[in-house]
């Protein structure tokens, strides 16, 4: 069987510099070959890349470095700049280009033998050699853009793998037989824009990594002498991504706000060399797919819901569900957790109550949209919806409400099934290599798998998931977390059954396995809430299920609500700007208004390109402060909508030992691969399309270069009466690693926002809120 460590994948890179060029030298994990990428530093306005297709041995690369150094000896020779673990991308604001690299990585888990890493530290490096022109280009606007991009902290909740398509579910990774597809362009790859230029010009992904933003936690479970690995992954979509009040509902392309795919994988441990029994279940969350919005107000923590009724044919809503069917299968099961109310209709105006159950305006319109869409499809393709007021059911008891959620999850699971198969360790690596190198003649004849090896890499597939369970509340955060946990718990019982792990029913809140799963889903909920709303998730319902809801936790939830309200009011706009630049929604240009000079409506509709004009879908409204109502005018004209083709991505379609010893980490606290420090450590960037790429050895034809700066040194279903033990990935890797304590990175417990640089004014508001 092919070993993952033997694959021709570049794992570690060292960046060297001369006055006129950067040389990025990468090697595979076993140090059997080296490759070189040359980056020109003489042009401050263009990014020129030159890739050498030659695969060098250790002796050859050593001699080559000496040769380059001798050619530049008069000007300082060849100096080591930094060591890294992959290119995140390139960015250009108004001045020079910058390169963003992974400075440190941490191991967070394994899937089918493929190692999954989290970004522990990133570094931004200016490409051109410092000159008068680059100094002049360092304007206040340039510094603002860099500061803005610094708000996106890549060391929080960004994950990648060199040999596994982490942007896809387990089912798609195993069942997909496509070749030559550019996977980095899919909806769950957040640095797609950053890497677009280098991928297009070099025609490979050898030098870059695909970053998935969301959540990853892996735990080893021991229950009555049975061992299995529980993995929960959340993948946040980059389409229509943003902050809570600036990204609501659906856009004209059918993408919804806060869209997150959650995958729950259970793997049975077997002796080495045997095929691995694995199961997975995928569910997703996303904002209500209608055109609606809310305007944050300092004085109103529950802003009015403004619904637009002009999209009478629900074109965008239909696009959204067509996209889900292409990604997951034809059966879409919807759990709508919105509250119930009875709004009044007055002639041509709708009165939107801003009170306790203001969500009902969305609930009713969502029901109408589903009925309208089902009316135009065959019965077997109908959307199946359950409108479940979780808050109302919660009033009659948390246990009763949770049982109803589990019953709904069980019914959904019986319809859409789950993925179950037996797969060899390292499956899918051949496709990753094929797609990584595209059409480049990198793989030699002797590296291709033999027929016996190909047979060993085959998987046995017994069951596939044929649809998806979609849940939402108003924010797709707190109530949705509970609903997804209920569905995950029901799925876990079915997964263990398929793996042959027997025992009493899993769906029992006192079951230690259920408690562990609840903890994982709470952690995921906190991470997703921090990313979208700037605070932890509310814990009221989870605490009620555990029976520990008390005055302390009530006050904690009040503080979370206040913190979320203040953060959304004062920080959402700047945070949205950072996301827009990171994802390429806004590209700075000389002579054009800066991002912060645009009106909020211009910033939020920058990339509307379809015929469905979202500006025409924004409601015209006036505010009545006396009765706290929104009067929404209804336009009698119906818009002509054009049906767009949805995009495709989704379900259908050991531990590392380095030369320095094993020092890897987990999803919580980890051992990181420490590298020499650099005087230029930043986080985040962007890239453009002005790239040129050519082949090979002419990249070394430079006569010499100058340098006046100093370089860095290279451096089962069992009740609570049974014994159950859980070991986090952190502990597993720690036991299998030999490392010194000075390599340990302290990571605070709980989720951390990836957005840093919060203003002092906001911090003061939070402190005042706590005092109140």
From TrEMBL:
MF GO annotations: phosphatidylinositol-3,5-bisphosphate 5-phosphatase activity
UniProt-listed InterPro entries: Fig4-like (IPR043573), SAC_dom (IPR002013)
Principal localisation: membrane
UniProt keyword list: Hydrolase, Membrane, Vacuole
Subcellular location: Vacuole membrane
Superkingdom field: Eukaryota
Reaction equation(s) it catalyzes: a 1,2-diacyl-sn-glycero-3-phospho-(1D-myo-inositol-3,5-bisphosphate) + H2O = a 1,2-diacyl-sn-glycero-3-phospho-(1D-myo-inositol-3-phosphate) + phosphate
UniProt KW Membrane keyword: yes
Residue ranges of domain SAC in the record: 149-534
Membrane topology value: Peripheral membrane protein
GO biological process: phosphatidylinositol dephosphorylation
A cellular component annotation (GO) from this entry: vacuolar membrane
PANTHER family to which the protein is assigned, alphabetical: POLYPHOSPHOINOSITIDE PHOSPHATASE, SAC DOMAIN-CONTAINING PROTEIN
Quaternary structure and partners: Component of the PI(3,5)P2 regulatory complex at least composed of ATG18, SAC/FIG4, FAB1 and VAC14.
Record-given protein name: SAC domain-containing protein
Source organism per UniProt: Brassica oleracea var. oleracea
């Amino acid at each position: 069987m092919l070993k993952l460590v033997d694959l021709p994948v570049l794992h570690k890179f060292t960046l060297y510099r001369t006055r006129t060029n950067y040389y990025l030298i990468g090697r595979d994990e076993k140090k059997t070959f080296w490759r070189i990428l040359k980056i020109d530093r003489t042009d401050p306005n263009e990014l020129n890349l030159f890739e050498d297709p030659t695969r060098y041995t250790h002796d050859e690369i050593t001699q080559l470095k000496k040769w380059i150094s001798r050619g530049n000896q008069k000007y300082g020779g060849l100096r080591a700049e930094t060591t890294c673990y992959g290119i995140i991308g390139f960015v250009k604001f108004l001045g020079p280009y910058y390169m963003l690299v992974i400075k440190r990585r941490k191991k967070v888990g394994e899937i089918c033998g493929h190692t999954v890493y989290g970004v522990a530290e990133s570094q931004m490096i200016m490409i051109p050699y410092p000159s008068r022109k680059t100094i002049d280009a360092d304007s206040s606007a340039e510094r603002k853009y860099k500061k803005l991009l610094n708000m996106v902290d890549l060391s929080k909740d960004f994950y990648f793998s060199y040999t596994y398509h982490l942007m896809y579910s387990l089912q798609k990774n195993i069942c997909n037989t496509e070749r030559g597809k550019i996977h980095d362009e899919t909806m769950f790859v957040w640095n797609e824009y950053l890497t677009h230029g280098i991928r297009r010009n070099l025609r490979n992904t050898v030098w870059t990594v695909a970053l998935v933003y969301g959540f990853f936690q892996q735990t080893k479970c021991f229950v009555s002498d049975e061992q299995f690995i529980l993995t929960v992954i959340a993948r946040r979509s980059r389409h229509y991504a943003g902050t809570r009040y600036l990204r609501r509902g659906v856009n004209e392309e059918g993408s919804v706000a806060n869209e997150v795919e959650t995958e729950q994988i259970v793997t049975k441990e077997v002796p080495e060399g045997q095929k691995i029994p694995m199961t997975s279940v995928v569910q997703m969350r996303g904002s209500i797919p209608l055109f609606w919005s809310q305007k944050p107000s300092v004085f109103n923590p529950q802003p009015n819901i403004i619904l637009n009724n002009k999209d009478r044919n629900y074109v965008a809503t239909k696009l959204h569900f067509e996209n889900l069917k292409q990604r997951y299968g034809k059966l879409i099961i919807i759990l709508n957790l919105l509250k119930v109310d009875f709004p009044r209709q007055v002639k041509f105006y709708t009165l939107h109550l801003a009170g306790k159950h203001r969500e009902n305006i969305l609930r009713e319109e969502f029901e109408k949209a589903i009925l309208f869409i089902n009316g135009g499809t065959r019965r077997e393709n109908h959307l199946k919806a359950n409108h479940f007021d979780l808050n109302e059911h919660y009033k009659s008891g948390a246990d009763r409400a949770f049982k109803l959620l589990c019953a709904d999850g069980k019914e959904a699971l019986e319809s859409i099934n789950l993925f179950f198969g037996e797969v060899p360790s390292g499956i899918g690596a051949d496709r990753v290599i094929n797609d990584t190198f595209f059409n480049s003649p990198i793989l030699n004849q002797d590296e291709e798998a033999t027929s016996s090896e190909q047979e060993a890499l085959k998987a046995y597939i017994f069951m596939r998931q044929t649809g998806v369970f979609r849940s939402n509340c108003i924010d797709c955060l707190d109530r949705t977390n509970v609903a997804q946990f209920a569905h995950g718990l029901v799925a876990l019982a079915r997964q263990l059954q398929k793996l042959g792990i027997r025992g009493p029913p899993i769906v029992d809140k006192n079951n230690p396995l259920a408690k562990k799963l609840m903890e994982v889903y709470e952690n995921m909920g906190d991470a997703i809430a921090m990313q979208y709303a700037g605070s932890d998730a509310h814990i009221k319902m989870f605490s009620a299920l555990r029976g520990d809801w008390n005055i302390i936790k009530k006050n904690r939830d009040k503080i979370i609500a206040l913190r979320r309200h203040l953060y959304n009011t004062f920080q959402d706009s700047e945070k949205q700007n950072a996301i827009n630049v990171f994802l390429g929604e806004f590209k700075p240009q000389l002579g054009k208004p800066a991002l912060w000079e645009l009106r909020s409506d211009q910033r939020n509709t920058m990339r509307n390109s379809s015929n469905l004009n979202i500006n025409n879908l924004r409601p015209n409204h006036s505010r009545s402060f006396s009765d706290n109502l929104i009067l929404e005018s209804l336009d009698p004209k119906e818009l002509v909508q054009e049906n767009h083709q949805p995009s495709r991505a989704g379900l259908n379609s050991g531990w590392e030992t380095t030369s320095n010893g094993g020092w890897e980490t987990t999803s919580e606290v980890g051992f990181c691969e420490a590298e020499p420090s650099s005087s230029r450590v930043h986080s985040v960037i962007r890239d453009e399309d002005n790239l040129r790429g050519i082949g090979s050895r002419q990249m070394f034809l430079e006569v010499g270069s100058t340098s006046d700066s100093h370089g860095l040194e290279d451096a089962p279903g069992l009740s609570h009466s049974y014994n159950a033990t859980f070991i986090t990935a952190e502990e597993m890797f720690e036991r299998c690693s030999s490392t010194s304590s000075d390599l340990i990175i302290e990571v605070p417990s709980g989720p951390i926002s990836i957005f840093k640089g919060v203003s002092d004014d906001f911090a003061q508001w939070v402190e005042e809120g706590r005092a109140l």
